[in-house]
Specification:
With 340 residues, the protein is of the alpha/beta class. The chain has 15 helices and 11 strands. The chain starts with 9 loop residues before the first helix and ends with a helix. One of its GO terms (molecular function) is ATP binding.
Length: 340
């Protein structure tokens, strides 16, 4: 096996990412995995769907990240009476001038927190479709582009379901990952309480939005070996046709599998994760580590599976265990190192 620590270009990138994470962790305690997924999403130009009970620092994390990159942060509290114009903006008539002017909505920001997104009806949730995919909004036939970088982090509460609406499948599929976050440990909660009693920490900007845009460009240059990309394709395809890949016993548990967006998300997410760890090439472990977050919201269980209390994550585990992994030959590793 060839030892390789990353190219000269990837090492400064990893240092900058460490500086950003360090600055965030001066404010946010714990939630290391959640923080890492937020950084993966923003490097890969994706969006996050976060599921967790209130009070787990979701808003604080995104707001602090905006401060570290000197970016703009906005929060929208989704409610049943919200209308699409409250998100994207609308045309206003000025009686004095007799002309219409465009008032842009809160989606025109760098980091957008859509809090409790499932509390708004489908027509409001669908207002985010264009801006999440195309990075633009169309108002009265006129197109307006949002700022770069742009990240939507949507939250939903897993326990309080009264007065909520199921997210449309088209909306769910546009989220790169769905991250589950839990309660902090006892030690972490002690530090949280200790910091709450102390004076607030002033967040320092350690990067700019221009630097972050450059990091996104560098992320696209991270090398993905064709054998690893083929593995990602097979993993996603196995959620649609398990029998073809020797997983016939899972066919009855899956009503609908993941779309090709999942394959793209796996590859792009693995590029970002590799870059954060100081490598300019992707390893099999990068893809496997992101598999649950990328696939869990894209797989629909059958009624039989739900009746048997089966979990999506356990099905993903079975697919990864039983699907043959690509061979890690010295030739492939050498290609990665030379390309990097």
């Amino acid at each position: 096996m060839i030892e390789y620590t990353g190219s000269p270009q990837s090492q400064p990138t990893a240092v900058l990412m460490e500086q950003i994470l360090y600055e965030i962790k001066r404010v946010v305690v714990g939630q290391d995995r959640f923080l890492e997924r937020v950084m993966v999403a923003i490097l890969a130009q994706g969006h996050l769907l976060v599921e967790g009970v209130p009070g787990l620092a979701k808003t604080l994390t995104v707001k602090t990240l905006a401060g570290t990159i000197n970016g703009h942060f906005r929060r929208i509290q989704f409610t049943p009476d919200l209308v699409p114009a409250d998100l994207i903006g609308t045309r206003m008539y000025n009686q004095r001038t007799g002309e219409f002017s465009t008032t842009l909505g809160p989606v025109f920001t760098n980091l957008l927190l859509a809090d409790e997104i499932n509390r708004a009806p489908a027509k409001v949730q669908s207002a985010l479709l264009e801006v999440m995919q195309e990075r633009q909004v169309t108002i009265a036939g006129e197109t307006h582009r949002v700022a770069e970088p742009f990240l939507v982090l949507a939250t939903q509460n897993p326990i309080e379901t009264e007065g909520t609406y199921a997210l449309p499948e088209a909306q769910v599929d546009r989220f790169m990952m769905k991250v589950l976050i839990g309660y902090p440990t006892e030690d972490e909660e002690f530090v949280i309480a200790e910091r709450a009693l102390a004076p607030a920490v002033a967040v320092q900007a350690v990067a700019s939005t221009a630097q972050l845009a450059e990091l996104q460009r560098v992320t696209r240059e991270v090398y993905v070996d064709p054998s690893l990309l083929q593995y990602a394709v097979r993993m996603v395809a196995a959620t649609r046709n398990p029998g073809v890949y020797g997983l016939k016993d899972l066919s009855g548990a899956i009503a609908c599998g993941a779309s090709p967006r999942a394959t793209i998300a796996l590859a792009e997410g693995a590029q970002a994760l590799a870059l954060m760890r100081g490598r300019s090439y992707v390893l099999l472990e990068d893809i496997k580590e992101l598999a649950h977050d990328v696939l869990r919201h894209r797989i629909t269980l059958s009624y039989e599976a739900m009746a048997d209390a089966q979990q999506v994550d356990s099905l993903i585990d079975q697919i990864m265990v039983r699907l043959p992994a690509p061979a890690r030959s010295a030739d492939i590793t050498g290609k990665e190192a030379r390309r990097a």
